[in-house]
Amino acid sequence: MSTTCTHYAWAEKNTAPAPPSNEKRREKLNGFLALDLNSGQTTVDFQPQAKTPNAVYVIALIVLRYASLGYQRILFILDNCSIHNDSMKAALAELLAEIPLAQGIAVDFLHTPAHSPKFNPAEYLIRLVRKNSLYHLPHAMTVQQRAERVHRHLAQAPPQTPQQVKNILSHIYRLPKSGGS
Fold it and tell me: Which of 72, 79, 82, 98 is in the most buried spot, having the most CB atoms within 10 Å?
């Protein structure tokens, strides 16, 4: 079985139940989802682990794609996932230094505050991807089939128009002023 099983259990007061779980043994893929804030285009890549080398690989591919389109500066907005750290940035810089196409490209990073998904534009996209690609699927679908379904849906058309992305950015910009977090 590839999906998480949820069980309900009663426990004594001030104790936590220990329901049976297959979480450590279930098949998993980690999704790396990117959203172009100008065009609304999306990129998704699935890797077996959420490790620094996997993140470097995915980000390097994005940098190379934009370098081939003539971009000179790229800003990545990242959440505070433990792999989005200085060692990832150093490994990315080292890798890009070896690739002629990436020479002269400035890559910058902006981190959203910890535990603040409302400030991350990709979180709004993740919600749509789950709604449009992952809800109400047969239980027997494998993780790989689900990943392929996400790829197909995102390849058909961006889930958000450039105007919708602009509206999300306006909403995020207003959050600190409205007290939302």
Answer: 79
pLDDT at position 1 is: 47
Taking the CA atoms of the chain, what radius of gyration do you get in angstroms? 19
Q: What are phi and psi of 32, to 5 degrees?
A: -110, 110
Helices 52-68 and 86-97: crossing angle in degrees, nearest 10, is 50
Give the whole-angstrom CA distance, residue 34 versus residue 42. 6
- CA 26 – CA 19 distance, rounded (Å): 16
Alpha carbon distance 33, 147 (integer Å): 12
pTM equals 0.75
Q: Which residues of the chain have pLDDT under 50?
A: 1
**Residue at token pair 């060692």:** 87
Residue 14: its pLDDT value, please? 75
Secondary structure (3-state) at 12 = coil
The tokens describing 54, both together, are 């996997």
